[in-house]
Structures are given as C-alpha cells and as structure tokens.
Design a protein that fits this description.
It contains five helices and eleven strands. It has helices spanning 26-39, 48-53, 127-133, 176-185, 189-194; strands at residues 7-12, 56-67, 76-86, 90-98, 104-116, 121-122, 157-162, 195-204, 213-222, 226-233, 238-249. The chain is globular.
Length: 251
C-alpha cells in the first residue's frame, strides 16, 4: 500500500500479451487490472483464492477503460488502484496505468458488487476491506457507473458464440474479459489495423453460463471510430452486456 490508500502492482509485458501489432492487447490489460484488484486483498490479510473458496467474490457491474497507447514487449508498467466510493454492497475502484517514466498511459474505473457465489446474491462488503483499503476520493476517469447504454436489436455486424468450459471463471459465469474479447472480434479488420481501442465502456446486465448461445450485435455510430454493442443470451432472450467502443488512429 502506498500513501493516500493507493495500492500498486508492477508488471512486465510478455510475448503472450502481445497482439500482431507488437503491443499488449486490451484483453491483456484488463487481465492485469483484475490481477491488481486481486492483489489488493493481500494487505488486508485475504488471499483472493481463499475468498473464492468461501464462495465469496466480486462481480463487475459496469466499467470504463481508456488507453492512449498500449505497452510494448518487455515494457514495465505500474498499475495504481484505490477505492473512491463505498455503498453497503458495492464499491467503485479507480485505476491508473503508468509507464516506466510515470506517465499515465491508461485509466480505468469499475463498479464492483460483493457477491455470494453459491447463492447468487449480493452481500455487504466486509468491514475489514473498508478499513484496510480506506477511501481516496481522487477520480481516475470521467464515468457514471449508473449510466445506461442502448440495447441493440440489430447492427451492421453480428456473430454467434457458444460459451465453452474455459470461458467460465471462479465466479461460475462468463468472465468480463471474454465478453470484451468477443465484442472486439466483431470489429472490422481495417478498423483494428489502422486504429487502437482508445476507450470501452460497458454494463453487465445478466449472467451467461456454460453452453449458452450468445448473439453479438455491433452498430456503427461513427464510421471507423465509434461502435455500439450488445450481447444477447439466445436461451433467455435477455441482454447480457451493453457496450460502447471508441477507436483512434495509431501513432
């Protein structure tokens, strides 16, 4: 733990983390953000796996991630994280991603729900987390966690995904990184070749589970720059995820 209730984790970008453009993928960065949140449990005497073994965990309800650039191979980065708000069952986690010169290259914010995995219901956040983590009102990125995103019923691009075994995480449902990956897969190759994913904002509405068939709609908001996304569970006809992505030209 650093000053002002800010926790840090350091990482080095590995070959596995890279895209064909020789930079870390957005999914790799989201994974490192999750890893940092998990590491943040250690200073309060809680191993994230031990927490899961008690059928307890955290579920992301909504979030936003923004990058000006992505780390290169073997580049060392630091992720700083802190809690800016608590309610009885929810907390808002802020993040900065910094390069070796302490420049901020990325920002992220998420609204997390403390969760009973077995009974699939929310629980009050334990006092030891609130006391151990404290609060820091600093805001990493402008984002309203309660903001609703449109649910699409059609789009210029679509795909159908079947949820496989390794799409399921320790919370017994599809991990948010998987949704993220599926959304980006639908983006045209030309857009991905000429641009980086600058910003993604998402809201998680319903769980998807092993064996479910998911329909992904993507709609063009601004050609080659902005897209709206929805993931439907075809077995329930309910929206699982709504999202918005913004792309910008590669430097």
């Amino acid at each position: 733990m650093t000053d002002n209730n800010i926790f840090e984790s350091e990482f080095i970008t590995d070959f596995y983390d890279l895209s064909q453009y020789e930079e870390a993928t957005p999914m790799a960065m989201l994974r490192l953000l999750q890893e940092t949140a998990g590491n943040h449990h250690l200073p309060v005497g809680e191993n994230i796996i031990d927490l899961y073994r008690k059928n307890l965990g955290w579920v992301l309800l909504s979030g936003k991630m923004q990058f000006d650039r992505y780390p290169k191979y073997k580049e060392k980065i630091t992720i700083r994280t802190w809690l800016s708000q608590y309610k009885s069952i929810r907390g808002v986690r802020e993040n900065y991603i910094l390069d070796e010169e302490n420049n901020i290259i990325g920002r992220a914010k998420g609204l997390w729900l403390f969760f009973d995995i077995k009974n699939r219901r929310p629980l009050s956040i334990p006092e030891k987390f609130k006391t151990g983590w404290g609060l820091n009102p600093q805001v990493s990125i402008d984002f309203d966690p309660a903001k609703k995103l449109p649910v699409l019923n059609d789009g210029e691009f679509m795909d159908i995904i079947k949820v496989k075994k390794f799409d399921i995480d320790a919370n017994k449902h599809v991990n948010n990184i998987r949704y993220f990956q599926w959304l980006i897969e639908v983006i045209p190759n030309k857009v991905m070749k000429e641009n980086i994913l600058h910003e993604i904002e998402g809201r998680f509405l319903n769980e998807a589970n092993y064996g479910d068939q998911l329909l992904i709609y993507t709609k063009i908001i601004k050609k080659n720059q902005e897209f709206s996304h929805t993931v439907f569970d075809l077995s329930t006809n309910k929206a699982c995820v709504t999202a918005h992505t913004v792309w910008k030209k590669r430097a």
